[in-house]
Amino acid sequence: MKETISSSKRIILGVDPGTTIMGYGLITVNGKKIELLHMDELVMNSKENHYLRLQKIFEKTIEIIDKFHPDEMALEAPFFGKNVQSMLKLGRAQGVAMAAGLSRELTITEYSPRKIKMAITGNGNASKEQVARMLQQLVDLKTLPKKP
User: Which of 27, 42, 70, 131 is most enclosed, with most CB atoms within 10 A?
Assistant: First the structure.
């Protein structure tokens, strides 16, 4: 596995892979201090071939890793919905992002959406807007992203 520069300072890449939008952010964690390093999204054409979108997810994830050199990757664990086809496509997107991280020897941890919401807001049923507002405070964002 990859060696960190300092045992207390880490860069964590968080990825929310989707089949049309992949959101990602990088934070620096130094002791109890958290700083936002970078965040963005990869927007893909929903009419584009699904396999080409998976390729874009893989390539973008590799590009992010090579640019920022994170120590670990956090992924949102799959959730179970009623549409089986959507779940399969989402699982593929998650798998491709995971494969990109593994190809760069990152430690990967999956977190359930409920656990993420609980860790950030203290409420596992928090809305996306509540999570975005709390993240804004935690990492001192001036403005919220367009799509919380």
Answer: 70
